[in-house]
Predict the structure.
Amino acid sequence: MQRNAGWKARHPWPGYAYTRPVPVPGGRSSRRFTPRVRKATMSNIPDGLYYTAEHEWVSELAVNGTVRVGITDFAQDALGDVVYVQMPEAGTAVTGSDVIGEVESTKSVSDIYAPVTGQVVARNESLDDDPSLINTDPYGEGWLLEIKVSDPSVVQGLLSSADYSQQVG
């Protein structure tokens, strides 16, 4: 049955696994296909943060009016291995929902959206040397930006951890 190995590699339903041949009337054999069940993984969604529909997290408002921003565990898992991050420099004015940068992975390039309106006061310089920090610690060392928020009430209008958890299923 060596010739079936090539057919197996070209099968139009790659999500299906082979089982052993089953005898069929007429002396031929048939293969049954069983779907591979992908194990559902629950993303890490910490309480005490706010979330956006674009899979970004925002920290609680600090005393000085700044928030820290990053991408969620769900987003980094979907992206795969992050290889490059482009972010605005400190001092750049950003407007909520506008594209302000991008994250490039081995799979794709995704935009970074400003979750709030304000001014960038810091960017995570360590991501320039090691962008994989986003994969290993998205809520800690893998943060992206710190933004001085122009309207603090906007932060409370973002998704809670429970709401974001429902969104990502």
Remarks:
- Residues 50-168 form a domain with the OB fold (Dihydrolipoamide Acetyltransferase, E2P) fold (CATH 2.40.50.100).
- Residues 1-20, 29-41 have pLDDT under 50 and may be disordered.
- The helical segments are 3-9, 73-79, 126-129, 133-136, 153-156, 161-168.
- The chain has two domains: 3-35, 50-168.
